[in-house]
Request: fold
Amino acid sequence: MPEPVQQTIRLSIGSRYENIELVKAVLDETLESLPIDEETGYWMGIALREALTNAIKHGNALDPEKKVDVCLAVGESGVDITVEDQGSGFDPGAVADPLAPDNLLKTEGRGIFYMRRFMDKIDYDFGAEGGTKVRLHKKFDASGGSAEANQGGANED
Amino acid sequence: MKIDKRQRDGATILDLQGRITIGEGDVALREAVLAAVGEGATNILLNMGRVRSIDSSGVGELVAAYTTVTNRGGKLRLFSLPNRVLGVLEITQLITVLDILEDEDEAVASVA
Reply:
């Protein structure tokens, strides 16, 4: 596969769940030309969904007036996805462990866990005047796939 | 998300097709399970064979469905899980909690 073309794509969406599909479609299109195998791309898509869900639901509290800014940056060694909301931030250290026995049957609280699992690295920035920016990183694999494939199975779409 | 309901040997089977993701399949799944429970179903089997994808919201709805049915004394089973769906449940250790069966025959037999 040829060297990936370095590019940056920026999107700004309203805080509605249906917009998740728009961003996901842009990610899928972007990944087609990159040295990331289908399996890894699938899990990146799930991680992106979780980041967008957190921004729309927890960050912007479903306020349609608040925006979520997304940046897909293809670099020499991998892809960085940043998702930024206009909420009041949160303490990542205070997020409960979804694997704790008392939390297994909770209906929420697994999104960040999935993001960490499906990406190589995630970190957070918090703006001085509010807003949470999460950055998801996935590195390319020299063999032409991604550095780490996670699961197996059928196509999403 | 498309959900069809049918009966077999006293069990209510919900055939799920599509994505169980936020704002789409998660709500449809919740409504379908609550409707079945409201109609008196006690043994509910979720056919996951045509579920293309699931996110944390969808996983949350599966957990909610499980607790809703079991708290009413019923049984909820999942069967024919695609590998990717199974993987999402495995890494959050939900396969130790939810009742997951290989196929429909096995699921029906488990509640007979």
